Amino acid sequence: MKINDRKNLFLINLGGPRTSAEIEPFLRDLFLDPFVFDLPLPEFVRKKLALWITKRRTPKVRKTYESMGFGGGSPLYAETVRQAEALKKILKEKYAEDWNVSTYMSCGYPNIRDLKNFPPSSHNVYLPLYPQFSRSTVLSTYNIIKQMFGDCPVASGGVISHFGMDERFLEITANFIYKYLTNQLDLTNFLHAQSYSKTLNWKNVDLVFSAHGIPMRLIKKGDCYTKELEYSVRKIEEKLRAKGFVGGIHLSYQSKVGPARWTEPNTLVILERLAKQNKDIVIYPISFVSDHLETLEEIGIEFKELSAHFGANSFHRVPALGTHLPFLTYLAEVVSAKKNKADECVCKKYGGEMLGKCPI
Fold this sequence. Notes:
Elements: E1 7-13, H1 23-32, H2 43-66, H3 76-95, E2 99-105, E3 124-128, H4 135-149, H5 153-156, H6 167-181, E4 206-212, H7 216-220, H8 225-242, E5 249-254, H9 267-276, E6 280-284, H10 293-309, E7 314-317, H11 325-336, H12 346-351
Parallel strand pairs: 1-2, 1-3, 4-5, 4-6, 6-7
Helix pairs in contact: 1-2, 3-11, 6-8, 9-10
């Protein structure tokens, strides 16, 4: 294969320190990003505050990662590598296409900013693993790529945009949850999933879709994140109802940081209310496709303990999609079909840039 014919696919995640030593650089990248740590402050003040918060939070975050049992770091990078390897195999076997598939992070290591020689094109495709659009994830990634190469990655046709409202993805997600609820999902391929007993009376459980929260100031700027989530949950609910599910459906937001108002309702509030009613609770991390700190520690331990404390009859965590074959087959189809060219400004349409309005 000629070097100029080589196809490069880059999977991009927000980031997760692989070791304890990488925690501070990860947090520094996170808080220095103006789309992630968005504050109505002069930029030089915002940066100084970001560095101060990084230093202050590092010891606390280090203790949290140490408790997870992955050597002081996060399993996110390793999980994303597993997805990359599986994608490469599917692209080769199903489409006879040789792609070099690799994994990079927006925060921490290996850092996407190090890819100086791979401008977006039909041969160099970037795939941010965020189902829903948000200024703090998708727009942040686009901005990084634009700074790297001086061109909008959407305009170049070298980026696959968010996929959370794609009917095929929603069908796969609904079937994934259904298989978990009906104990048909092989849990051996998912982290910590086997620590939960089988679900009982699946049709009547309360299903909580928990998404990572974002500050409301981003929503006020026109970010479509909550609208996309509401749409996705509504469509998944329709598919589960068609299969016989009659339980409660709830959308909530987790991982709030700081005193500012964030997206609501908070998952903690929803769980406390349901637990006090002695409900059977099942929680699905709708904004994540890889298990990491927020799914394994926050949902899997903190939320589970809180639910038990307030009297929940049972608590179950549906794993993130991870290397679920239908999900990766879907991504491979999108990559192979080159559905990565946009004829409109995605950031303007979904992120509030240039006074765009949410179309949902």
